[in-house]
């Protein structure tokens, strides 16, 4: 847990940060902003809890979960609807899987909140949102969960619906929270128009959300921006056209949550996660072509993309 609000923990913050200009994320920048040592046993590498999914969308949790392990998280827990929990337990034998009560429409019931908080009490990082099918369901659950969390938190996908209703709802997690909206989710959270905004508009929107929520925001489209509440900005240009496909965002959110569990701060996890996710897409483009690869293949490329930097 960071000792100082708004910034990365001592020893994890890029020395060039705070210069006033956007920093482009490169392998060299990341090597100078090294991740916590991945050595030690599984407990030292951190425990990540992923909460999400629905009867029709178990794959989102699966992609996020595997991505968290692929970037080095030591322990994995998944909490999802009871109907699909046995399937996920079989698909990811490395994980503990909790089946939660579900609504008639197949989303997680708000009554699951108490059990989610029990699991989160022993987690180093919690990812909330992948695969939740309806914004009302997301709000109802997260209103009972987020205010009581104390660990590092990632809000992704429809998890952002909680912030739409409660713009200050993560302020108690200052220094420990990261928001990962896509361009549409970013606009909807702010209550603004979404009409294929250009990079400068997306950067400004991410900055407004970071300032209002006091959270680090990773937002954008082909180019993404990591923005802190104090206005520090990192620009990520890694990636490929074929990554604009179902499940890619879930994989990125899972990778970021895994890095947080390892001990990275929110801005560092966002910068590293966004870059290696994009680099995985570039590698697949070189091997397969501009389109046609799957999000699950992105996940499998993450260790190699990470190793390219951690030489």
Description:
With 311 residues, the chain is an alpha/beta fold. It has one domain (23-309): UDP-N-acetylmuramoyl-L-alanine:D-glutamate ligase. Helix content is 40%, strand content 14%. It has helices at 27-31, 58-70, 85-91, 113-120, 135-145, 161-165, 183-190, 199-213, 248-262, 266-288, 295-309, and strands at residues 23-24, 47-51, 75-81, 96-100, 125-128, 152-156, 177-180, 216-220, 224-227, 233-236. It has a ten-stranded mixed beta sheet with strand order 1-10-9-8-7-6-5-2-3-4, sandwiched between helices. Helix 6 (161-165) links the parallel strand 6 (152-156) and strand 7 (177-180). Helix 10 crosses helix 11 (295-309). It is globular, with a radius of gyration of 17 Å. Mean pLDDT is 92; it is low at 1-19. Keywords: ATP-binding, Kinase, Lyase, NAD, NADP, Nucleotide-binding, Transferase. InterPro entries: CARKD, Ribokinase-like. Belongs to the NnrD/CARKD family. It is an enzyme of class 4 (lyase). It catalyses: (6S)-NADPHX + ADP = AMP + phosphate + NADPH + H(+); (6S)-NADHX + ADP = AMP + phosphate + NADH + H(+).
């Amino acid at each position: 847990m960071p000792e100082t609000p708004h910034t990365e923990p001592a020893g994890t913050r890029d020395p060039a940060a705070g210069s006033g200009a956007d920093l482009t994320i490169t392998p060299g920048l990341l090597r100078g902003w090294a991740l916590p040592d991945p050595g030690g046993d599984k407990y030292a590498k951190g425990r990540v809890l992923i909460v999400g999914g629905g009867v029709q969308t178990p794959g989102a949790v699966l992609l996020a979960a595997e991505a968290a392990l692929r970037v080095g998280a030591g322990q994995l827990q998944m909490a999802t609807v009871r109907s699909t929990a046995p399937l996920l337990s079989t698909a990811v034998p490395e994980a503990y899987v909790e089946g939660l009560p579900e609504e008639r429409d197949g989303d997680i019931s708000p009554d699951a909140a108490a059990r989610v908080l029990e699991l989160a009490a022993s987690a180093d990082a919690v990812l909330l949102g992948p695969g939740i099918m309806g914004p009302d369901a997301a709000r109802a659950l997260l209103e009972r969960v987020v205010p009581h969390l104390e660990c590092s938190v990632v809000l992704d996908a429809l998890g952002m619906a909680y912030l739409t209703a409660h713009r200050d709802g993560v302020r108690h997690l200052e220094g420990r929270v990261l928001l990962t909206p896509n361009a549409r989710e970013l606009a909807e959270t702010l209550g603004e128009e979404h009409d294929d905004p250009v990079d400068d508009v997306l950067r400004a929107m991410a900055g407004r959300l970071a300032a209002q929520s006091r959270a680090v925001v990773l937002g954008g489209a082909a180019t993404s921006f990591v923005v802190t509440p104090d206005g520090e900005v990192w620009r990520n240009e890694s990636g490929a056209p074929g990554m604009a496909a179902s499940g890619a965002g879930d994989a990125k959110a899972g990778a970021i949550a895994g890095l947080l569990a390892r001990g990275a701060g929110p801005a560092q996890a966002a910068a590293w996660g966004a870059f290696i996710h994009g680099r995985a897409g570039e590698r697949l483009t070189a091997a397969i072509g501009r389109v046609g690869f799957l999000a699950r293949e992105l996940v499998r490329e993450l260790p190699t993309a990470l190793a390219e930097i951690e030489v």
